[in-house]
Amino acid sequence: MSAFEYAAPQSVEDAVALLTSRPEARPLAGGQKILLGRNSDLSNVTVLVDLGRIASLKGIERQDGALRIGAMTTLNEIASNSLVGKELPALAEAIGIIGDAQLRNRATIGGNLAEGDPEYDLPAILLALAATVDLAGAKGRRTVAIEEYLKGQSRSPRTRDELVISVTIPVPAANSGVAYLRIKHPARLTALCAVAAVLTAERGRIAAARVALSGATDHPTRLEAVEKALLNGPVNGEQGASESAISVDGIAFRGDVFASAEYRRHLARVLTGRAIKQALLRTTA
Predict the structure, then answer these.
(1) pLDDT, tens digit, 9 for 90 and up, residues 94-143
(2) Same domain, yes or no, for 140 and 238?
(3) What is the CATH number of the domain that holds 10?
(4) Looking at the structure, do residues 66 and 29 belong to the same domain, yes or no?
(5) Domain tally for the chain?
(6) Most buried one in 5, 23, 101, 206, CB count within 10 A?
(7) What is the pTM of this model?
(8) Domain harbouring 118, CATH code
(9) DSSP readout, the chain?
């Protein structure tokens, strides 16, 4: 590994100033990707800007019917938080199967999103939960919808000088069910294919549906055809998981030495059916 200059700013403004004035600088969150040697994009980086001393980037708070999670909050801190356990138990459940304990102790929600790795677990469930991403850069602060943020590395709205400062996740309605299922990558602690489903029931029917896929495609994506097929359907696990409700047509699946595109397509259909069934069983209406 090459030698780097090291900076540890104590405010978001100082970190942004460093990133703006030093084009070769890169923010450092949990750092697990660098430690695992999986980062191939460090050739032009000479300055690591450690965000770990910025207190405002840590913590979890309730905010207008949502939970705001600071970007430097670790995955274990999120999973063990009482607010998350009460309001977003499926998020804690999903985090519990990510990597291993050591990784969860270092990995942060902001770093997870900033890397833009299509195999990471969090993007799928955050997409299904309709999260928003809060950014800070030289031009100020702004909030973008998770769909906009997760368009893929080459199309990400985040500019080089911007930091992810927090993620805001709306708390699902009381009559909602949330599920996250995945098949683990055979060589990495990531998702070969993962599906998250958030379904809201009213009077025995499905009133709202968000279903998201990651790992199997170049960037996390919503299964909009599946969502439309589910709307107004009965709250019945078997019906919700029927083949007629699961369409992945028009989606470009990734293929590599670990799994073909066709196999990932098969996994997507299977996991979607199971996630829908589990989410429906978790609804209360």
Answers:
(1) 999 887 888 888 899 998 888 778 888 899 999 999 999 999 999 999 99
(2) no
(3) 3.30.43
(4) no
(5) 3
(6) 206
(7) 0.90
(8) 3.30.465.10
(9) ----EEE--SSHHHHHHHHHH-TTEEEESS-HHHHTT-----TT--EEEE-TT-GGG--EEEETTEEEEETT-BHHHHHT-HHHHHH-HHHHHHHTTSS-HHHHHH-BHHHHHHH--TT-SHHHHHHHTT-EEEEEETTEEEEEEHHHHTS-GGG-S--TT-EEEEEEEEPPPTTEEEEEEEEE-SSSSSEEEEEEEEEEEETTEEEEEEEEEESSSSS-EE-HHHHHHHTT-BS-HHHHTSGGG---TT------SS--HHHHHHHHHHHHHHHHHHHHHT---
Structure tokens at 139: 């031009």
Q: What's the CATH code of the domain at 181?
A: 3.30.390.50
Give the end of a domain, one of 170, 192, 226. 170
Domain that holds residue 30: 5-50
Residue closest to 107 by CA, chosen among 121, 87, 127: 121
- Report residue 87's pLDDT band, with 50, 70 and 90 as the boundaries: very high
Same domain as 210, residue 126? no
187's tokens: 């060589």
Residue 32 confidence (pLDDT):
62
Whether residues 35 and 123 fall in one domain:
no
